[in-house]
Write a structure and sequence with these properties.
Blueprint (H helix, E strand, L loop, with lengths): L1 E3 L3 H6 L9 E6 L5 H13 L3 E6 L1 H6 L2 H8 L17 H8 L2 E7 L1 H8 L6 H8 L4 E5 L3 H5 L1 H12 L3 E2 L3 E4 L5 E5 L3 H13 L8 E6 L4 E4 L2 E3 L6 H12 L3 E6 L11 E4 L3 H12 L4 E4 L6 E3 L19 E3 L3 H8 L4 E8 L3 H11 L4 E6 L11 E2 L1 E5 L4 E3 L3 E2 H15 L1
Parallel strand pairs: 1-21, 2-3, 2-4, 4-5, 5-6, 9-12, 9-14, 12-13, 14-17, 17-18
Antiparallel strand pairs: 7-8, 10-11, 15-16, 18-20, 19-22, 20-21
The structure holds cytidine-5'-triphosphate.
Length: 414
C-alpha cells in the first residue's frame, strides 16, 4: 500500500512561523529581569504570535510600557481601572483570548499571590480568569527563590497544573551568584512551544538520535568527511523533546545549537559513533540513525602532517567502517529502529532493500539529487517506508517540519 498524503495535523504544523495564529498574553512583573522580557515579547511576535502584555505597576516603573507596546503592537495594560477602550471587561477578554499565558519574569510576589488566589490587579485577575495553559518564569535573588514559602507556592502552582520553569544559575542583579536568573529566551520559547503544540506523544520514552557527518582523520589536519550538516537529526531530537521524550543526541557536529532539554554526546568518527550508540541502545525505546556515516576510514592515520615534498602522488588506503545501523538491527529487542537512506536513484527500491537488510521499523528515504532535498539545505523531500511494507510520500518541507512528522509517525506505530 503506497499513499501520498498530508493529514490535517501535519498540514496545520506546516506553517512558516511556529506561533502563527496563537494569542499569547505576557504578564511582566517587577523584577530587574523585566527588561529581558522585552526580547521575549519581540521574539514571540517575530515568530508569528499575537502578543498582549500586562504589566504590574512595579514592572512599569522598571521598563516603560511604551517599550512593550511597541514590541507587541498592542496597548499595554497596567492599571485595572484605566485605559479600557475596546475590551468589554478587559481582564476577562484577555483571559479568554489567550492560547497561552506567560508570566515572565515572575517575582516571589506574583507567585505568592496566584498560589493564594489573590486577584488584586490586572495581571493577577487575568491569570485567575484564564483557562489557557500558564507558563511561569521565576527570576529573583537566590535566597528569595530558595525560601521555603516561595518553594511551597511554586509547588502549589505546579500541583494545579501551571508550568513553572527553573531559573538559571549565574550572576544576579543583586551582585551575587546563584540560582534565580531569568532563563535564556530560547529556553522560554521552547517551553512555550511545548505547551502550545506538545501532545506528550513520547512521554516516558528514551530516544537516541545520531546526527551530522562523521570525520575520519587522514593526518592531524585533514579528514574524510561529507556534506551532512546535522540539521535533520537535530530537528528530530527537538521534535522528540517537544513530545516529552528523554532525548540524547550523539552528534558528529558541534556547529548547531543543542535543542532545549536534549542531552548531547559529541563524537567524531564512525567508531566513536558506534561505541556511543551501542552503549545507549539497550536502554533506549527508540533509536534514530540520522547521521551520515563514512563507509570507509583510512587504514592508518598519519601521526604528523603529510608533506607534499615526500609524495608526487599520494595513495590513501581505506578500510570499511562498521555499519552501525545494521549492528543495532541485529541486537534489537524492544527498540523502534529508524534509519535514513540518502539516494540519487531508485530511491524507494533502495530504501525497501535497506529497511529489510538492516531490520528496521521505519526508513526515511530521500532523493538527494532533487532540488530542496539532502545535505546542507534547509528542506527535505522524504518518503517514509514502514516495516509492514506500507509507505507514505511527503512534499517538500523544512527539516524542522519533517522532524515533527517523523516523531508523529514513530508515535503512531510504537
Ligand atoms: N549507516 C550506518 N553505518 C554506516 C553507514 C550507514 O549506521 N557505516 C546508517 C546511516 O546512518 C543511515 C543508513 O545506515 O541511517 C543508510 O545509510 P546510507 O549511507 O544511505 O546507506 P549505506 O547502508 O551506507 O549503503 P550505500 O552507501 O551503499 O547506499
Amino acid at each position: 500500500m503506497e499513499r501520498s498524503l498530508m493529514n490535517g495535523a501535519i498540514e496545520n504544523r506546516m506553517q512558516k512561523f511556529m506561533f502563527e495564529g496563537k494569542h499569547i498574553v505576557v504578564g511582566i512583573t517587577g523584577g530587574i529581569a523585566a527588561y529581558k522580557a522585552a526580547e521575549l515579547v519581540s521574539q514571540l511576535r517575530q515568530r508569528g504570535a499575537d502578543v498582549h502584555c500586562i504589566m504590574t505597576t512595579h514592572a512599569a516603573k522598571l521598563v516603560s510600557p511604551i517599550t512593550f507596546g511597541e514590541l507587541s503592537g498592542h496597548d499595554v495594560t497596567v492599571d485595572m481601572f484605566a485605559n479600557i477602550s475596546h475590551w468589554d471587561v478587559e481582564h476577562i477578554a484577555l483571559a479568554r483570548l489567550a492560547d497561552l499565558f506567560l508570566i515572565a519574569p515572575a517575582t516571589a510576589n506574583i507567585i505568592g499571590k496566584v498560589a493564594c488566589g489573590i486577584a488584586d490587579d490586572m495581571l493577577s485577575t487575568t491569570v485567575m480568569a484564564t483557562k489557557a495553559p500558564v507558563l511561569v518564569v521565576p527570576a529573583m535573588n537566590t535566597n528569595m527563590y530558595e525560601n521555603p514559602i516561595v518553594q511551597r507556592n511554586i509547588q502549589t502552582l505546579r500541583e494545579v497544573g501551571y508550568t513553572v520553569m527553573e531559573p538559571e544559575e549565574g550572576h544576579l542583579a543583586c551582585n551575587t551568584s546563584g540560582k534565580g536568573r531569568f532563563p535564556k529566551t530560547e529556553a522560554i520559547l521552547a517551553a512555550a512551544e511545548k505547551l502550545l503544540f506538545g501532545r506528550h506523544l513520547l512521554r516516558g520514552k528514551k530516544v537516541i538520535v545520531s546526527a551530522g557527518g562523521t570525520q575520519e582523520n587522514i593526518d592531524p589536519v585533514r579528514y574524510i568527511g561529507n556534506r551532512s550538516s546535522g540539521r535533520m537529526g537535530y530537528a528530530i531530537a527537538r521534535a522528540a523533546a517537544m513530545e516529552d521524550a528523554d532525548v540524547t543526541l550523539v552528534s558528529c557536529t558541534k556547529e548547531l545549537p543543542v535543542p532545549e532539554g536534549v542531552s548531547v554526546c559529541y563524537v567524531q568518527n564512525a567508531r566513536e559513533l558506534k561505541k556511543e550508540m551501542d552503549a545507549r541502545f539497550e536502554d533506549s525505546d527508540i533509536a534514530i540513525m540520522a547521521a551520515a556515516v563514512s563507509d570507509y576510514r583510512t587504514k592508518t592515520e598519519a601521526k604528523q602532517k603529510i608533506k607534499k615534498e615526500a609524495h608526487d602522488a599520494l595513495q590513501i588506503e581505506l578500510e570499511l567502517n562498521p555499519d552501525i545501523l545494521y549492528g543495532l538491527g541485529q541486537k534489537k529487542t524492544h527498540q523502534f529502529l529508524v534509519g535514513f537512506a540518502a539516494e540519487t536513484n531508485d530511491v524507494i527500491e533502495h530504501g525497501k532493500e535497506k529497511l529489510v537488510r538492516k531490520n528496521l521499523d521505519m526508513l526515511v528515504a530521500n532523493d538527494v539529487s532533487q532540488k530542496g532535498a539532502g545535505f546542507n539545505v534547509e528542506t527535505n523531500i522524504a518518503s517514509i517506508l514502514y516495516r509492514d511494507h506500507t509507505m507514505e510520500q511527503f512534499p517538500i518541507m523544512t527539516k524542522e517540519e519533517l522532524g515533527r512528522v517523523i516523531v508523529e509517525k514513530i508515535a503512531e506505530r510504537l
